[in-house]
Design brief:
The protein is of the alpha+beta class. The chain folds into three domains: about 100 residues, Arc Repressor Mutant, subunit A, CATH 1.10.10; about 80 residues, SH3 type barrels (Roll), CATH 2.30.30; about 90 residues, no CATH class. Helix content is about 30%, strand content about 25%. A five-stranded antiparallel β-sheet has the order 9-8-7-6-10. The longest helix has 17 residues. The chain is globular and about 65 Å long. The termini are far apart.
Length: about 325
């Protein structure tokens, strides 16, 4: 009988998997502290999204001794015996092709873990310290597709995907994923596009049917070769010149001397400016009611491929091309 692990209600429980003769019945309770539940969630998350897991990963993350990490691994392999195999050459555990996560991860928490390294994807069901709400996310990627992408990324391998494009619809593409990027509204995969021979951004929610391609990638397909990713640009943001009370905007963004300086990768600079509705037009002509910020140094976007995404830049580029 295969089992499904639940990290809810303060206990680790084993349930019969759908299709088992004991489906829906509680098979066995395993007492576990919250700390161990977090470690079990972490080791599965680490294995699934990076493609490898070592005892030292658990020990470094939680500050525990080897004996404790060994017990955690033994418990997990008892619960999910078909999920991990030991790679004697790499001296680590790797997910089987048939790996089926036994914990239910919240996509937002998983992405936070990938971006910032904390949270570990586990929803502990704790109440907030104070009433707090946000706009939430309208888009959530498929975690199986995300896991396949991140495993290829960590292994430095290419992938074959089905991709839904606004211009060409569904199409099989061969890419080399090198990074994940959050533009504030949705997540992208930064990847080398073998068909076009250049790096580009692929919306994560439009990716499906991911298949890893075994074999080395070329040097020109690696993250180190992505010039737009490597290049850092400094943008200077100031209150829009048509704002009647600019001090209010300065207070909003904690500006010093009326300016906020931030650094961003060239590949992401356009997304940053679009997210914050920054007027990037040379003559700051956009409506100040919806564009409280103005890009004070538009020349910094020279040679930045993502600049066309910034408010007011596309029109400026078109005007320059037609001049």
């Amino acid at each position: 009988m295969s089992v499904v692990l639940s990290f809810r209600d303060g206990r680790v429980s084993r349930y019969a998997r759908a299709g088992s003769p004991r489906m829906g019945l509680l098979a066995e309770h395993l007492d576990a502290s919250q700390a161990q539940r977090e470690r079990l969630a972490f080791l599965e998350l680490r294995a699934f999204f990076t493609g490898e897991l070592r005892r030292s990963d658990i020990e470094a993350r939680f500050g525990i001794r080897p004996a404790a990490s060994s017990r955690d691994l033994a418990l997990y392999r008892e619960i999910a015996p078909d999920n991990l195999e030991y790679d004697a050459v790499g001296r680590c555990y790797r997910p089987y092709q048939s790996f089926a996560p036994v914990s239910e991860f919240n996509p937002d928490r998983v992405l936070t873990w990938l971006l910032q390294g904390f949270g570990d994807g586990l929803d502990l069901g704790l109440k907030p310290a104070a009433p707090c709400e946000g706009p939430g996310q309208l888009t959530r990627p498929d975690l199986h597709a995300l896991g396949a992408i991140t495993r290829s990324m960590c292994a430095k391998r290419a992938t074959r995907i089905s991709y839904l494009s606004l211009s060409s619809g569904s199409k099989r593409r061969e890419i080399v994923p090198v990074a994940l990027a959050d533009n504030g509204l949705r997540w992208h995969v930064r990847a080398f596009d073998r068909e076009r021979g250049r790096f580009g951004d692929f919306v994560l929610t439009r990716i499906s049917k991911v298949k890893q391609i075994y074999g080395p990638v070329r040097e020109i397909e690696s993250l180190a070769a992505d010039e737009q990713w490597a290049r850092m640009v400094e943008v200077e943001l100031a209150p829009h010149t048509c704002i009647e009370h600019p001090k209010a905007i300065e207070a909003d963004y904690g500006m010093h001397d009326g300016v906020l300086r931030i650094k961003a990768r060239a590949a992401l600079a356009g997304y940053v400016l679009r997210r914050w509705n920054v007027d990037a037009s040379p003559d700051h002509r956009l409506d100040p009611a919806t564009h409280h910020l103005w890009l004070r140094n538009p020349q910094t976007l020279y040679g930045v491929e993502s600049a066309a995404l910034a408010p007011g830049q596309r029109e400026a580029l078109e005007s320059a091309a037609n001049a």
